[in-house]
Amino acid sequence: xxxxxxxxxxxIDEAVEFFGEDGGGAEVFGRPGSGGSSSNNRRGGGERTAxxxxxxxxxxxxxxxxxxxxxxxxxxLELLRVGVADRISQTSSQIQDALKLPKVPIAADKLEAxxxxxxxxxxxxxxxxLINIARKRVETLxxxxxxxxxxxxxxxxxxxxxxxxxxxxxxxxxxxxxxxLKERHGLVGMTRLASVFLIRLCTVETALYLDFFGxxxxxxxxxxKVKGATSDGDDEKEAEENEGGDDASAFKRLGSSSSHQPxxxxxxxxxxxxxxxxxxxxxxxLGSLCSALHRTIRRGLVSVLDLDVLCxxxxxxxxxxxxxxxxxxxxxxxRAVSGVIxxxxxxxxxCANTSLHKEVVRxxxxxxxLNYPGKLLGEKPKAAIxxxxxxxxxxxxxxxEKEEAEIxxxxxxxxxVYESWFPPMRSVLRILSKIFRVVEPRVFEDIALSAxxxxxxxxxxxxxxxxxxxxxxxxxxxxxxxxxxxREQLSPFDIQLRSVERQLDFSEAGKAVSRFLANRNRRLFxxxxxxxxxxxxxxxxxxxxxxxxxxxxLEDCLRSACxxxxxxxxxxxxxxxxxxVDQCKNASSDGSTDVLRKxxxxxxxxxxxxxGNAYDNxxxxxxxxxxxxxxxxxxxxxxxxxxxxxxxxxxxxxxxARRFIDEVPNDExxxxxxxxxxxx
Length: 680
What we know:
Elements: H1 2-19, H2 24-28, H3 42-50, H4 62-99, H5 115-141, H6 149-213, H7 216-230, H8 234-243, H9 248-255, H10 262-272, H11 280-301, H12 307-325, H13 331-361, H14 374-377, H15 393-419, H16 423-435, H17 441-470, H18 472-490, E1 498-505, H19 509-518, H20 532-540, E2 542-549, H21 550-574, H22 576-587, H23 594-598, H24 604-632, H25 636-662, H26 673-679
Antiparallel strand pairs: 1-2
Helix pairs in contact: 1-3, 1-4, 3-5, 4-5, 4-6, 5-6, 6-9, 6-10, 6-11, 6-12, 6-13, 7-8, 7-10, 9-10, 11-13, 12-13, 13-16, 13-17, 16-17, 17-18, 17-21, 18-21, 18-24, 19-20, 21-24, 21-25, 22-25, 24-26
């Protein structure tokens, strides 16, 4: 208690006076003489005792001097320890007893007004004065000297005691508040509110820590600067009252509204001049308090499978991390949020890969999935019904209903188009669009590379099934349509889709082992490159590298699909003419037309019937091709690009057929001018 504290100080004063009776001690302790008064106040006695000067070897009775000086220093440090460390521990115990901590947590909205802060603010000024005594002694003696080590140990003890007490008082309340937020607002809402809460907590805790361990001179100078820039009238008066006392109230006035408002920036400016809050012990304590966010969110992330929720969590956390990084006093919260972001991204990557493996790699199509062109025919958008409205209020209402119906029809049409896509491609584009810019670029590109490869393979397999069920033209257009959409939808991601795959090749391992066993002079313990084990690994195992370019593979697959469509469509339109031209080429492969003239397929009557059947079927086949292309490919320019090579091939085939027919003379194989003109 206070009486005991005064009694101890008086006893130390008496010892100092006794030691300084011959005048030597008085000079050492900086006293004007040996007649010190015991009526000095408590703080003055502590300061006099703690400010003893280093031992001087020239003083008389050096051994006795040193012994008594050490005793006085120990007594002074004990007084400082009682005044700071023990006082903090005692206050913490009283708060726990009064609030029944940690069994009963404090409501978050009442935390700053509770005893957890008010009692500590009450002892902060006295504690700060005693701590500054020890800090000045360290500066006087030199931080690296042996004499200053006792004071440094004292400061470390005070910091550890303070941080331990604050962590004990706040941990239960913070964890309870996190759990309550999760129950009330869900994982996404809790993430934002909890981050804001931790940013505010770090700011308030930093201000309180500086009340205990900060340099009052630096804070007073900075407060004057901010006061002159931000306050006038009554605000100036309040800032002047806070100059010589507790800065916590000024800090609260500046930063109590929200961690994202300009008040926090001003408060950070007040704290920026004093870097005491960067102490390792205090930052470790803040990190431990902020770990409650990681603990609560991680438990929620483990059970989340929805990619949308995970993406929202990462986006919210990134925003809050930016807010926490904006001030140096909330870096602990920023580090905690960064750790949670990594966990959320890890969970997101796992869920994305799982979904891709399930919906793309292991996809097994049903008959409904392969119902082409049935899916396209059933999803043609319906024409909007427009009803002419009447004049006045009734007409305006009908007009609004008409506009709403048109909007709904447009959205429904877009959804129908989306639903007409092959399910694996739909899944790939949906997942990639969700995780884009949410995960790291390299991770996204790796996921996209494997997803595009699996999707391309799935489209080829689907085309094979459609070929057997619906025919060649539907299989070709199905593959062309989906590959065009896939390429178009991947372009906004601006990714290369390239990688280098490395594999271990053990093909030579057997021979290497045989050589190893046959070598009787093998050196197993040699430290050179001739070591037998090193040679075995070098000769038996090799690394094979292969370049993977999914974008190039996609382009090659699309080019191949377009070429197949052109070839198949040309053959379908020409019909037997295409086979006739091939037969003619084979018969005249040696450059002679003698064999060609006598072939049965070159008979004039046969050729005439063949060309007649081809021309009769051309119109219907061309109409069917045009109809199917419009059904699969909505863009007319794409249809034109695909049809131009078909027209060129048909023209070239007809010219070649005419050339072969002209090579057959009249009166041979039933050919004459009239028949030739009719066919050509």
